[in-house]
C-alpha cells in the first residue's frame, strides 16, 4: 500500500502514521467496495483508482518535493482561494481532509457540537495529525464565508499557520474593490513563502493551467449529464473525479480527465450506458460533498437512479467559469479579472443570491433531469435557509425536489435510502401518469 512506502516522509511532516495508515486502510476498503465493484466502468477510471491508492502517499511525496524547492504548498477549504497564483508560482494548492466522521469526536473537545461536520472533521484531522495534506501545507488559507469557519480559523491558528481572506457577503462595487485587494494580498503571501517575486507571466501561466482543468471538467459534465438516454459514467465515479480535482497535480489531472472524456465520447456514440434506459436522472444541489462522504450518491445510485451532476462547490460551481486573460497587460488588470471570475461564485454566503436559483432551474432544463435533491450538511445555516428559496422556485416550475439534511455519521444512511426510494417512486409514478395522459 502507498502509505507504507512513504512512512518516513509522513512521519517527518508530523503525521500520526499508525492512525493514518488505519484510516487509509478503511478509506481504501470503502472505495474498493463502493466504486471498483461497479459494473461497466470506463477503462480510464483505472487512473483515478490508482490515484486513490496514492492519495495520501505518492501525491504527498510530490507536494513535499515541491516544498523542498521552495515552491508554496497551500491548503484550502473553499473555492474562493485563487489557486492560479499558487500554480503560477510552481506550487501546489489543495483541499484539506474534511469529509470523514472519525475525527469529529476529537474536534468536539475544542469546537461546539452544533456546527457543520465539514469544519469539525477538518479540525479533528488537524488535532489527530491524520491528514497528510494538512501536515504538508505551508499555511492554510481560510476565508470569511460563514460564521463557523470564520471563528474556527482563530482556533485553528493555534495548531497550524493560517491566513484569512476576507470574502464579502455582498457584491456591491465597494465589496468587489476590497475583494481585488484581498487577491493581491494573497499573491504577496505566496511570494513570502516562495521568498521571491512572482511575475505576471508566471501568474498568467497559472491561469492557463487552471482554465484548462476547468475546461476538462466542463467537458466531463456535458458528457455525463447532457445525453438523456445515455449515462456513460456513474454519478459516483464522476463525483470522485470532482473530489480529486482539489488534490491531484492540475496538468496530469486535466490530461487524465480528457482521456476519460475521449472514452465517454466513444461510449455515447456506441450507446454504452452504465444505467438501463429510463433510469431517473437526478441533480444534486447544496453544500460541498467532500471525500469520503459518498453516502448520498450510494443511496441514490443504489436505489436505481443516476446522479447526473452536482451543482455544489465540489462540482459545477467550481468549474463553471474561467478567468478571462485576453489582453491583460498588468498585474492590476489580472487581479481585476481574477476578482471578476471569483465573484461569479454563487455561494449561499452572499445576499442576495438569486442568480443561483435561476441557474439551477436552467441547469435542470438543459439536462432534462427528472428530479432534484437539495443536500445540506447539518448546521450549515446559509445553504439550509437558502433551500427554502430554491425549493419554492423549483415548485413553481413543477420540478420534483427532495431536501436532505445530513452529517457524516453512518447512522442515517438507512433513513436517507428510504426517503430517496420514496422520492424516486413518486417521480416514476408521475412520469407514468404523464405517459398515460398523453395516450
Ligand atoms: S464557496 S459553499 S466551499 S464557503 S463550512 S458554508 S457547509 S457551514 S463549505 Fe463552502 Fe466556499 Fe461557499 Fe463553496 Fe456551510 Fe459548513 Fe460553512 Fe460550508
Would you mind describing this structure in some detail?
With 439 residues, the protein is α/β, with parallel strands linked by helices. The protein contains 20 helices and eight strands. It has a four-stranded parallel beta sheet with strand order 2-1-3-4, sandwiched between helices. The chain has a four-stranded parallel beta sheet with strand order 6-5-7-8, sandwiched between helices. Helix 6 links the parallel strand 1 and strand 2. Helix 11 packs across helix 17 and helix 15 crosses helix 20. The longest helix is centred in the middle third of the chain and has 26 residues. The radius of gyration is 21 Å and the shape is globular. The structure holds Double cubane cluster.
Question: Secondary-structure blueprint of this entry?
Answer:
Layout: H1 2-5, H2 7-12, H3 17-36, H4 45-53, H5 58-68, E1 73-76, H6 83-88, E2 92-95, H7 104-107, H8 117-128, H9 132-136, E3 139-143, H10 147-156, E4 162-165, H11 173-194, H12 200-225, H13 235-244, H14 250-269, E5 281-286, H15 295-301, E6 306-310, H16 316-319, H17 331-342, H18 354-367, E7 371-377, H19 381-396, E8 401-406, H20 413-438
Parallel strand pairs: 1-2, 1-3, 3-4, 5-6, 5-7, 7-8
Helix pairs in contact: 4-13, 11-17, 12-14, 15-20, 18-19
Bound molecules: Double cubane cluster.
Double cubane cluster is lined by residues 78-80, 116, 118-119, 145-146, 148-149, 287-288, 313, 345, 347, 349, 377, 380, 382-383.
Number of H- or I-type helical stretches = 20
Count the strands? 8
How would you sum up the major sheet? 4 strands, parallel
User: Are there runs of 5+ residues with pLDDT below 50, and where?
Assistant: none
Question: Quaternary status of these chains?
Answer: single chain
Mean pLDDT metric: 97
Strand order of the largest sheet: 2-1-3-4
**Overall spatial form:** globular
Cα-based radius of gyration, to the nearest Å:
21 Å
- Series of secondary-structure elements, N-terminal to C-terminal: HHHHHEHEHHHEHEHHHHEHEHHHEHEH
Helix share, percent: 55-70%
| Terminal-residue CA separation | 58 Å
The percentage of residues in β strands lies in 5-15%
The small molecules bound here are: Double cubane cluster
Q: Which structural class should the secondary elements be placed in?
A: alpha/beta
